[in-house]
DNA sequence: GCGACAG
DNA sequence: ATCTTGTCGC
């Protein structure tokens, strides 16, 4: 797929702040999506002592979840890990991997937060706004927000709250297993995001899309 | 000032 | 994120 890359990428939090502030106004958290035929998962791994970032994208058919296409890309790591600025470290290389796809996914599930972020602009929002496609943030751990205890059964969920507003949901993707932190990235509502993530999760805690991307991004050859 | 802190 | 084997529990 054709991608419009930003001219330059910031290398410090100070440079990233104004970009974050400008782009967050473009985030849409209402459903603005087509019928879903293809769901993609993206993830980033590191090589050579973190100096090289490697992104992987896995496109699965929906709702049968069969791998249809995959793409890998590597790039020099140009931004440090700073909580609140993860997207500036991972989105650049993700864009390069997406560019190699022949199938344009209808929605992308990201390994990280969507609006469940201090500035309401997590990785999934940043990626979604840049490529103007629906995205969901499905993180393995909490970043910000509080929530009530949730039932142990698969499918149960509780809203994630921060500053008095609902920023996402804590979702039990498998019975008796650590929950997932789901939040809208772009062009999708929280309710639709929760249902989509659950529909993409079968036998394991993580969505099949994320499992494929994780696996591909962590390979050394 | 003291913790917390996506990947 | 990543280094790493077997092992305990639902």
Automatic annotation (TrEMBL):
GO cellular component: cytoplasm
Places the protein is found: Cytoplasm
Pfam families xref list: Endonuclease_5 (PF04493)
UniProt binding sites for Mg(2+): 43, 111
Keyword Metal-binding in record: yes
Cofactor(s) needed for function: Mg(2+)
Family, similarity comment: Belongs to the endonuclease V family.
Identification of the protein by name: Endonuclease V
Organism (species): Lyngbya aestuarii BL J
Biological classification of the source: Bacteria, Bacillati, Cyanobacteriota, Cyanophyceae, Oscillatoriophycideae
Gene encoding the protein: nfi
């Amino acid at each position: 797929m054709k991608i419009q890359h930003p001219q330059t990428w910031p290398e410090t939090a100070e440079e990233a702040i104004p970009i974050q502030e400008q782009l967050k106004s473009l985030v849409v958290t209402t459903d603005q999506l087509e019928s879903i035929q293809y769901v993609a998962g993206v993830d980033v791994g590191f090589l050579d002592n973190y100096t090289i970032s490697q992104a992987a994208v896995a496109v699965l058919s929906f709702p049968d979840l069969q791998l249809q296409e995959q793409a890998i890309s590597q790039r020099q790591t140009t931004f440090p890990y700073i909580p609140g600025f993860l997207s500036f470290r991972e989105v650049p290389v993700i864009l390069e991997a997406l560019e190699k796809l022949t199938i344009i996914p209808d929605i992308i599930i990201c390994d990280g937060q969507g609006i469940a972020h201090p500035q309401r602009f997590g990785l999934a929002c940043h990626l979604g706004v840049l490529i103007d496609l629906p995205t969901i943030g499905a993180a393995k751990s909490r970043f910000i927000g509080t929530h009530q205890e949730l039932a142990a059964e698969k499918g149960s969920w509780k809203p994630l709250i921060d500053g008095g507003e609902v920023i996402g949901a804590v979702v039990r993707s498998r019975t008796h297993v650590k929950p997932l932190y789901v939040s809208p990235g772009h062009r999708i509502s929280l309710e639709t995001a929760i249902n989509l993530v659950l529909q993409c999760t079968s036998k394991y805690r993580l969505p099949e899309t994320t499992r494929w991307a994780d696996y591909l991004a962590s390979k050394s050859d």
